[in-house]
Amino acid sequence: MLPGDEDDQLYPISEVARCFGLSVATLRYYDQLGLLPPAGRRGNVRHYGRRELRRLALIQHLHHGGMLSLADTAAALGERGPDGVLRPPGRAVLTGTIQRIEARMADLQAAQRRLAHLLTCPKNDPVRECTHLRAELDRNVTEALGR
């Protein structure tokens, strides 16, 4: 048992949803995916303990921050899919995500450089008249035509 897990208070799904800014349907979906099973049920109402709330905070940290998809979040947590098959190890998911983020960052930096150039271009209408941009567009057209 981890420190903090000894708190045996259980929280109903509606309270957890409200406190974490989620819908009840989202928590049910997380349960359906195997991401966040409740600690127990009282009647038909799911209840969550401290351990589950910490896991929910981790899911939000990984998923809602835009870092990982829900499928990748489940894989990073080492969950089994609905078919019972263990998903790839978390480190592989994290490594792949880092590579995609780095590629996206490179694309964004290139876009930033292009826009910064257009701001400093001496032409009156740099978007339409910039010779540097026009040359780049001509290369793109030639490449697209396969010539």
From TrEMBL:
SMART domains: HTH_MERR
Record domain HTH merR-type: where: 10-79
Signal peptide: none
InterPro entries xref list: DNA-bd_dom_put_sf (IPR009061), MerR-type_HTH_dom (IPR000551), MerR_fam (IPR047057)
Alphabetized UniProt keyword annotations: Coiled coil, DNA-binding, Repressor, Transcription, Transcription regulation
Recorded coiled-coil stretches: 91-118
Keyword Coiled coil: yes
Protein name: HTH-type transcriptional regulator AdhR
Organism from which the protein derives: Streptomyces rimosus subsp. rimosus
